[in-house]
Design goal:
Layout (H helix, E strand, L loop, with lengths): L5 H9 L3 H12 L3 H15 L21 H9 L5 H17 L7 H4 L1
Length: 111
């Protein structure tokens, strides 16, 4: 256990391939037309701040930033990764677990 992280052990125990994590993250985080609409509405609301009649956007758009191979390698060897990257990894792992008909996990189980 000297050189493997909690994340790497989890992936090995659940038999999840690293390439599938990157592919799943790419599909989850890819910007969709609805995300662009959300961003446009937020920009328009910011422009017309004086007029409060503009519709307020409450949904959050996808980030458009998938997990990179470099971030995945850092997570596997136990390096420092940011909070948003951990969340992206968690979303991708949960999607793969859901496809395998297994229980979803929380962030503390991975990191």
């Amino acid at each position: 256990m000297a050189d493997t992280s909690k994340f790497a052990q989890f992936l090995a125990s659940k038999k999840i391939d690293q390439r599938r994590i990157i592919a799943a993250s790419r599909t989850i985080e890819a910007l969709q037309p609805e995300d662009r609409t959300i961003r446009l509405n937020k920009r328009n609301a910011k422009k017309s701040e004086g007029g409060e009649n503009a519709p307020k956007e409450t949904r959050k758009p996808r980030s458009g930033r998938p997990v990179t191979p470099r971030a995945l390698a850092a997570a596997l060897k136990g390096g420092a990764i940011s909070g948003p990257t951990k969340t992206r990894l968690l979303k991708a792992v949960n999607l793969l677990l859901e496809q395998k008909k297994q229980e979803k996990v929380d962030l503390k189980a991975l990191f």
